Amino acid sequence: MWKVFLGFGACLAMTVIAGLGLADADEVEVEVEKLPKVVADAVAKKYPKAELVKATQDEEDDEIEYEVTVKDNGKLIDITLDSDGDIEGLEKELDLKDLPTAVVDALEKRYAKATVESVEALYEVEDGTEELKFYEVKLKASNGDEIEALVKADGKIIGAISEDWTSDFSADKDSLVSSGKNPFFILEPGYQMVFEDDDEKVVKTVTDETKMVDGIECRVVEERETKNGKLVEFSRNYFAISKRTGSVYYFGEDVDDYKNDKVVGHHGSWLAGKDGAQFGLMMPGVPLIHGRFYQEVAPNVAEDRAAIIALGVSIKTPAGSFKNCVKMEETTPLEPNVKEYKVYAPGVGCVQDGDLKLVKYGKFELPKKN
Questions:
Q1: What confidence tier does 8 reach under pLDDT thresholds 50, 70, 90?
Q2: By C-alpha distance, which of 109, 118, 104 is closest to 76?
Q3: Which of 320, 82, 365, 326 is closest to 182 using CA atoms?
Q4: What DSSP letter does each residue of 166-214 carry, written as one string?
Q5: For the chain, which domains are there?
Q6: I want to staple 111 with a disulfide (CB 3.0 to 4.6 A). Which of 4, 284, 334, 368 is the partner?
């Protein structure tokens, strides 16, 4: 079966489900015998041979909504109705064999070696007409993590949930541009940061170049790492920023590894839209404490993820002293025992990357092209 990539975006998934009236944290359980007659009659008319299992009631903006679970032909069905008994949504339990081939193919392509726990189809109902919105496929990874993937009938994965790690950010894709800045990340041509630690030096430069990745025009950020003055890695990283939220997203990198002035490999290279990879979140527009998200979403190649562990941090570096910083803990399921820490300062960006500290930053004149 499929091995599932750890962590998916709860935000989009819960928004879509709530939009169908199929999920709410404030629901109150109702005895099925005490359901309003108009609601019970609507359920009986829709599924005359079904067994009533449970019911809940939710009130929002003075409007009451009911969710009734029935068992029909051995399968559970959740029915969402308004107080007049009009059906608004359905969530039907299915077997794996009931999934369209496109859905199965999409999941197998992106993930491997996960087991399928359950399958449901979610419908929106208007004037009695059912419209399939997506399939919800619950999977379990080999390490026990549970995934809920939301997939359209054509195989497009529109979101997923896994614990509280987020890795699907497609809801923001239509707002992405190649230049801009948020309080903790500057994506403007000519901006440069220099980091040092003993014999190691890293220079990050926002270039005036762009590259199309996964249908998005991304800004190229070059990164040069040297040790004892010798180049050990050169990478071209691809970012875009949301005009709507200010969040900065990471679309991949092309990496050249050097030894004795020669390229010896391309470890860690990946691009969104290829081999099951998708873009990750590098810096939220509004960082929130305990926020947890994937920065790189390239299964088995690059799976860095970040947790915001502190706000309002103060730090001193050779480039100056900074206050009100964000501190992140970075991990990856590819190396479970490795942790690294980064600190981001408002108006500057990253000021500490592991043992590397910022020594110089600011705008510089980009070289003129011939």
A1: very low
A2: 118
A3: 326
A4: B---GGGGGGEES-EEETTEEE-TTEEEEEEETTEEEEEEEEEEEEEET
A5: 10-168 (3.10.450.360), 173-363 (2.40.360)
A6: 4
What DSSP designation does 96 have? Answer: G
Q: What are the two backbone dihedrals, phi and then psi, of residue 120, each rounded to the nearest 5 degrees?
A: -135, 150
Q: What is the pLDDT of residues 159-216, one digit of tens each?
A: 555 556 788 888 788 999 999 999 999 999 999 999 999 999 999 999 999 999 999 9
Which token pair is 308? 């915001």
Give the whole-angstrom CA distance, residue 10 versus residue 162: 7
**Dihedral angle over CA of 200, 205, 211, 217, nearest 10:** 120
For 171, the token pair is: 């809801």
Percent of the chain with pLDDT over 70: 86
State residue 216 phi and psi, 5-degree precision: -120, 135
DSSP line for 34-84: GS-HHHHHHHHHHSTTPEEEEEEEEEETTEEEEEEEEEETTEEEEEEEETT
d(CA 183, CA 76): 47
Q: Read off the pTM.
A: 0.59
Contacts of 108 (CB under 8 A, 6+ apart): 2
**Torsions phi, psi of 273, nearest 5?**
90, -5
Query: Would you list the DSSP string of 297-318?
Result: EBTTTB--EEEEEEEEEEEEET
